[in-house]
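Example 9 (inverse folding). The structure is encoded as follows.
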């Protein structure tokens, strides 16, 4: 098992335990609605587009320390681990198979180059999620969506997600106001 997969397996287990709670009736109805899926970045609010651009530019630079100013754009750092991480940069270095955070930077770029989903439109909880696959049940993916998934994970990992019942690779969320809320893996 790669160094990256071990933390991912751990995060999936932690998330399953933490998130195992009854879903309020109204929330489950909301979850069953299909998310808005977009490829056109021009539909993003300007602040969301600016945050996405800042993350991509820093990640493409190849030095995880270049992410620090982007992280500091938020009042609070985004969630990067379900187990909690005081310093996202240190966490990414430790979780990355190369020990320098380059693998994590690559994952950031990978997910931000995929189509995105808009969730909870018109509410204070409105969020833009990359990749959109994080908002679609793996068993419900179309063949074209499976091609998107295979760009991120192996067919074996995709099958494991389907058996698990949820998307478990990295995903990133930015609020309508441009706040970077999370970049996590697991479910």
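The amino acid assigned to each position is listed next.
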């Amino acid at each position: 098992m790669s160094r990256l997969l071990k933390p991912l397996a751990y995060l999936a287990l932690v998330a399953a335990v933490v998130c195992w709670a009854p879903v309020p009736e109204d929330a489950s109805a909301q979850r069953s609605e299909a998310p808005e899926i977009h490829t056109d970045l021009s539909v993003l609010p300007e602040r969301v587009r600016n945050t996405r651009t800042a993350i991509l530019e820093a990640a493409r630079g190849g030095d995880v320390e270049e992410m620090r100013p982007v992280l500091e754009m938020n009042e609070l750092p985004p969630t990067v681990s379900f187990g909690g991480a005081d310093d996202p940069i240190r966490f990414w270095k430790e979780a990355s198979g190369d020990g320098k955070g380059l693998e994590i930077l690559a994952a950031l770029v990978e997910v931000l180059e995929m189509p995105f989903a808009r969730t909870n439109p018109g509410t204070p909880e409105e969020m833009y999620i990359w990749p959109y696959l994080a908002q679609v049940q793996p068993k419900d993916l179309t063949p074209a969506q499976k091609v998107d998934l295979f760009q991120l994970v192996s067919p074996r990992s995709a099958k494991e997600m389907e058996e698990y019942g949820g998307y478990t690779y990295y995903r990133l969320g930015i609020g309508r106001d441009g706040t970077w809320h999370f970049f996590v893996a697991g479910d």
